[in-house]
Amino acid sequence: MKTDKTPLILILSLIMCLPLSAQQKPSEPNQVLTDQIKGDLISQLAGALRTKYVFEGKADTIANVIVSKFESGAYNNILQGTELASAVTADLLLLSGDKHLRLRYSEKVIPETADNDPMKIPTDQKLAYATELKNSNYGIGKIEVLAGNVGLISFNFFCAPEFSGDTYASAMNYLAHTDALIIDLRKCRGSASIDATPFLSSYLFETPVHLYDLWWRQDSRTMQVWTYAHVPGTKYVKKPVYVLTSFATFSGAEQLAYDLQALKRAKIVGAATSGGANPGGDIRLTDHFSAFMPIGRPINPLTKTNWEGKGVMPDVAVAPARALSTAHGIVLSELEKQTTDDSRQQQIKKIRQNLEQSTMPLKMVNFHLDGYQSAREVFVVGSFNDWTPKANPMRRTNNGWELQTEADSGKTVYQFIIDGKWIFDPKNPRQAFDGLNSGSLREIQ
What we know:
Blueprint: E1 2-4, H1 35-52, H2 56-71, H3 81-96, E2 102-105, H4 126-135, E3 140-146, E4 150-155, H5 161-175, E5 180-184, H6 196-202, E6 210-216, E7 221-226, E8 241-245, H7 252-262, E9 267-270, E10 280-284, E11 289-294, E12 296-299, E13 316-317, H8 323-338, H9 342-358, E14 363-370, E15 378-382, E16 395-396, E17 400-407, E18 410-418, E19 421-423, E20 431-433, E21 438-444
Parallel strand pairs: 1-7, 4-5, 5-8, 8-9, 9-13
Antiparallel strand pairs: 2-11, 3-4, 6-7, 6-12, 10-11, 14-17, 15-18, 16-17, 18-19, 18-21, 20-21
GO biological process, one term: proteolysis
Domain Tail specific protease: 126-319
InterPro entries: AMPK1_CBM (IPR032640), ClpP/crotonase-like_dom_sf (IPR029045), Ig-like_fold (IPR013783), Ig_E-set (IPR014756), Tail-specific_protease (IPR005151)
């Protein structure tokens, strides 16, 4: 087994915003999925699983079952690409338990690359890719200094320092004077580069630290991943760090939380994360289908494992909607105890008391969906759970589906997901857009 410390650009899972390809050929007229088209696709998918999928022991079994389902007619009545992708993805998840592994459909023809390497961004697509990242602010959602001189930075995703380095450095410089840092990953769905988490982690350590090893199936190669000795701007060391998590926290975001927790550099506040550890990328199968397939495995040098299928467990377990106020309160309590300045201590105490008084309790809310008795699974998703697709499964009833969960009071926008298909609430005529998605609108009181 070889060891390699050379940096490698890697496209990790980005559920929410990054395109399948920065540039695509024009759409072709809608095609009916013939048995020939589906057969070619299933054959290509099975081949990719057998040769590339990180879990070698499972790969053959999964491939054989998918082929068998096709041959037995399980996909015969599916004529649309999105429906087939959803059905096969559901089968892949059932067989593997791997939330990264999925089939994708594109109406546009997926461009071919010279080596179909899922780890590389084709040179001719880099400019459009860089523009997409810039327009998304390189994944940064918010930078703020909270009351009591507590820094806050939230991420929707991470990306390579090649594109984001100056922006990330500026963010850390802005927060350098704060007394504690909260990193909000509750809506962070992953990383678009293997170099992002080491770069960000480097601001939190004085000297290089061994974060994890990455084993690649293709050539049984292991590469070590360390923090950097030098990063632009000011490092953030010897000050407390808290990381906020939710079920939506996934992939590369989990990597950062897991590493900092294992190294005792940060405490995790919130809920257990989604549990997707293994990196990979999109593999082109046919003109209109690709598979996102994990092809490597991270191994933490301290725990000797990772968070695949388990998630990152919080040190302080609270509802994600209360993670920020909880972490802020903990930080203020620590600062109040540590300070020797009476005036500063009284100031922090007052801020903490105001925070406690202003934090409203969560409300219980019921969601109902009539019908759809033949559905395999139904979820409700919306602004109340950061649009996390499978965070809130509904329970089957005699006449439909129901769910009771906690949420903040106020307006919430939501949809139902029925066997992978998103719909508005058929019985709710009110609709709205919450900045991320459109959906049915309701007031929680």
